Amino acid sequence: MSAVLDYTRQEMMAIATGREIRDGELAIFGVGLSMLAGFFAQADHAPNLRTMTEGGVFGATPVGGLPWGIECNRLAVNATSFTSALDALGFLVASGRCDVGVIGAAQVDKFGNVNTTGVWDGDIGPHYRPPKTRLPGAGGANDIACGAKRFLIMVTHEPKRFAEKVTYISSPGYLDGGDARASYGFVGGGPSAIITTLGILRPEPGANEFVLDGWFPFSSVEEIKANTGWDLRVAPNAREIPAPSATELANLRKVDETGALRKK
Amino acid sequence: MPNKLISLAEAVRRFSWDGMQYASGAALPIGSDAIVFGRELLRQKRKDLHAIFHCSGQQLNLLAAAGAATKAECGFAALEVVGFANGLRRAVESGRLALEDYSNLAMTLRLLGGALNWPFVPATVNIGSDLQYRSAFSPDEFPARSKIPSVTDPFSGREIGAFSPLRPDVAAIHVTLADPNGNSILLGTEWSRFELSRAAKKVVVIADALVDPACIRQYPNLVRIPDILVEAVVYWPFAAWPHSSPGMYDMDEEHTFFMNKALASEQGTADYIRDFVESYSDLDSYLDLIGREKIKTLSASGSSFLLDPYRRWIFAPEDVASLTAQGLST
């Protein structure tokens, strides 16, 4: 029995996300946590992962800590190709070639739709009005949500972020559930998991409503349900998700040199 | 040699006006952005700008905070890991600036459509989400019909969307290296600067360094913006400050956070404009403002090796001065 490891919820979320990424895949990462999760996977169990950012930085790994942005010099120092957004998000994602993308969310709903655009007081209503709090917008996440074969959503688990229905769909999950995506003909398959600071949710086949698939060692079904804004159902085979191994944690911290995920 | 060099002040006098569609910031926030052009727009009191910024960044953050931009179209409107863009945020939340949202691929495709003079661009992204159904420019339409209208694919019969093409009046494009005639090399990702340089009606390049045309002839494959597209060339080191420019300088972390904090309030914005927009009179005093020690630190970038193949052709400041005297300014 090894000593109990000291890790943060953010680190658990990043490692759980990284475990979803398989060796050899073509992967695209957004900025921040999703980038750390992706590069963790490469450092840990997916050495042949083929990576790109949405601005068209290929084959780079962060040097000197979490890049400030996807065009940051911390990524520009060891790239194998610099191209463009049209190349990365268009030729390689909208084309249907990208296996997996990782995106973040300010708000997510039970069908995996993502809001990163704004916070309104109540519904927007028929007349568009500016949000009370403006958020960054869709960025490349909408393109990843439409085009990647599957995508992963990383989000802090709080009731205000887990809504029955998001106020504004910035990036489409399963829309109204079931096969609603089909009418738009998206080449991408939709979100395969929502990885949070407390556990993992996955879509139930058919209805495509997200249900609880697992909780982290420091969490519980009760805590997760209490922090979810809809009546979250628990999958029959839901289980506790293993804590990070010493190797996983070491590999994550190699990527997260500046300790962005260590802040509690 | 052909020479389109012009001073920054002259470029803004000639190539900007109130109410124009102004494109810049065609790189993600923490990459290169012709921020110094935006500072000069404020110095010359330009207003009512319709900003076409693929991604926002500190330039649009500043223009919005100062009230100079009243409309904007963006794919991403924040400062990535640095955080929300406080000035832009205040302008949007108060209703002073209407921000029309698209995705990053959508902005590139709309510029491509403008560049090719297409009537519209087929949209297989942004459809089905509120990017299609909500419009800040046509707030009474719900679901919006004029933003990304539905069209039928004539081959499959499938319903998709139509993006409107973008043809900005003027684009101020930050480049790493340019020759005096405007042939430009961009280190790092071009993001959508290639498409933008073809979509805009007029292009001004703002270069961190000027190179001899022999450099251009050595690496023609890397010249993604040829001189025939360029109206004028502005030489301005640290043009993207406090952002980074791959191969040239790192992000000024301290000033980036300071600036964004200042832009969070009216008073802070006024102070920022006084201290960092109106306070310099020429390139030398601009570099003094950044701080000569700071410049040394930022220039010691881990990415500096990217510039190595080009160094022998970079003009010294005194050569630039005499070239500028012979350029379009005369």
Features:
heterodimer, A: 264 residues, alpha/beta, Glutaconate Coenzyme A-transferase, eight-stranded mixed sheet, three-stranded mixed sheet, globular, B: 330 residues, nine-stranded mixed sheet, CoA_trans_fam_I (chain A), NagB/RpiA_transferase-like (chain A), CoA synthetase (chain A), CoA-transferase activity (chain A), CoA-transferase activity (chain B)
The CATH class of the largest domain in chain B is identified as Alpha Beta
What count of domains describes the coordinates of chain B?
A: 2
Shape of chain B: globular
- Main sheet: strands, sense, barrel of chain B: 9 strands, mixed
Radius of gyration of chain A: 18 Å
The percentage of residues in β strands of chain B lies in: 15-25%
What is the count of DSSP helices of chain A, taking H or I runs of 4+ residues? Answer: 7
- Classify the beta-strand content of chain A into a percent band: 15-25%
In the CATH scheme, what's the topology name of chain A? Answer: Glutaconate Coenzyme A-transferase
Secondary structure class of chain A reads alpha/beta
Percent of residues of chain B in helical segments? 25-40%
Keywords (chain B): Transferase
Protein name (chain B): Glutaconate CoA-transferase
GO molecular function (chain B): CoA-transferase activity
Pfam family, one (chain B): CoA_trans
Give a structural overview:
Chain A has helices at residues 9-19, 33-44, 73-76, 85-94, 141-147, 221-226, 246-255, and strands spanning 26-29, 50-53, 57-58, 81-82, 100-104, 107-109, 114-115, 118-119, 133-134, 150-155, 162-163, 191-196, 199-203, 210-215, 234-240. Chain A is globular, with a radius of gyration of 18 Å. Chain A has 264 residues and is α/β, with parallel strands linked by helices. Chain B has 330 residues and is an alpha/beta fold. The relative contact order of chain B is 0.16. Chain B has 13 helices and twelve strands.
